[in-house]
Amino acid sequence: MVVLHEATTENIHEVWEMQIKAFEDLLRKYQDYDMSPGAESFENIMMKFNQPWTKYYFILDGDDKVGCIRIVDKKDGSRKRISPIWIMAEHRNKGYAQQAFAEVEKLYGEDNWSLDTIMQEEGNVHLYEKVGYHQTGEIEHIKDGMDIVFFEKN
Q: Beta-carbon neighbour count of residue 72 at 10 Å?
């Protein structure tokens, strides 16, 4: 059973390091240095962390930090957003992401969510559909072999 633990200023550098490591394979695969979380600067993470509508959480299994999730909730009626979520490579395919979604919904509610992912990453698409998200029909072509597909959960 996972628990979410809110990141603080003191450990945001660890969040950034985990993010870079978690997305390194996708960065290498798609070579997308403009949008990939695997290429995001620490300064950009700090800027997001300091937004009043953003919270980063560690996804914990006991004392193990198995991943992280960023929640954007402007509390103005607009869709809440997950951007990004990741599970560290050595902890994938163990149900942690599904449990993290359930924990997030306990904190923020079950509906009015959005997220996006690389359409060609079938495992991500499957996960999001499994936890109740549906594709909006909007697809953004980034480059050959890489498209972003958008999801909502009402």
A: 17
Q: pLDDT per residue over 43-86, tens digit each?
A: 999 999 999 999 999 999 999 999 999 999 999 999 999 999 99
Of 58, 152, 49, 46, residue with least CA distance to 96: 58
pTM: 0.97
Q: Cβ distance 37 to 121 under 8 Å? A: no
Q: Encode pLDDT of 89-132 as tens digits.
A: 999 999 999 999 999 999 999 999 999 999 999 999 999 999 99
| Dist CA 6 CA 57 (whole Å) | 4
| Predicted local distance difference test score (pLDDT) of residue 112 | 98
Sign (positive or negative) of CA dihedral 99, 133, 73, 111: negative
Ramachandran region, residue 146 (left: φ > 0; alpha: ψ -120 to 50; beta: rest): beta
Cβ within 8 Å of residue 13, ≥6 positions away = 42
Q: Count of residues for the chain?
A: 154
**Rounded to an integer, what distance in angstroms lies between the CA atom of residue 112 and that of residue 86?**
21
